Amino acid sequence: MTPDSPNRSAVTAADAPAAIGPYSQAIAYGGLLYCSGGLPIDPAADALVQGSAGAETEQCLRNLAAVCRGAGTELSRAVRVTVYTTRLEDFAEINEAYGAFFDDPPPARVAIGVAALPKGAAVEIDAVVALG
Question: Domain 9-130 - what CATH class?
Answer without folding.
Answer: alpha beta
